[in-house]
Amino acid sequence: MITSAVAVPALLIAQAVPELDGADRDADVSLPPDLADPSPPRASGQPDGEVAAGRHRGPAPARRTPPVPRVPEQGPGTFQVAAAPAVSTEGATTYRVEVEDGLPFPASQVAQFVEETLTDQRGWATRHRVVRVDGHADLRIVLATPETVDELCTPLDTGGRLSCRNGDNVVINAWRWQFGAESYTGDLTGYRRYVVNHETGHALGYAHVGCRKPGELAPVMLQQTKGLEGCEQNPWPARADLVDH
Ligand SMILES: [Zn+2]
């Protein structure tokens, strides 16, 4: 018998088997959309009215593209803990946000994104009070390089491309943070919202579910990195997972 994960008491921190998330390694390693050139091709030739001599007739100057942050495959295994304001944590599930040294994502910015996600009224905040701290916490939400993710997720095999929840660690793969997944093509922010909500959802006691009906919004606890099973992408649990519960 399969029991519904959402029946788990709200503030219980799940200690069950770790969860591994992500696609088959080969399924979505194509060039991510945020690296694709969004600009239309330039017309060649000189601007109208250009009458000058040959020194103006060289190739157009190289177009500057925004630098793409480099995500190393491995890091030192040390982390920056994002500072957090002192707030009441009574009755709350606490978490702290950590970013591995060497990643091009400042801990303060990652923490802001995670906090926005977990306090959004489209999210778990409708059912759970989760509070960010920078000291002892119930959960660590860690953004790490692929090899460090592998270590933190052991005994799971992440293949360097997956994220997981393992015990009190919510481990997000920086490769996914940068590249997203095919199911969220063109919406990296949406993918990041999804992966934070999905992995934190495990820590709050929720297990995987499938797409209930093709065309409907995907539950956050569907492994959307793998695909959508005919559902529509959706990073917000209050829109699907928590409906009718
Ligand atoms: Zn999962």
From TrEMBL:
Residues passing through the membrane, by range: none
Species for this entry: Nocardioides daphniae
One matching Pfam family: DUF3152
InterPro entries recorded: DUF3152, MetalloPept_cat_dom_sf
Residue segments, region Disordered: 21-75
Protein name: DUF3152 domain-containing protein
Record-annotated DUF3152 domain positions: 66-231
Gene3D superfamilies given in the database record: Collagenase (Catalytic Domain)
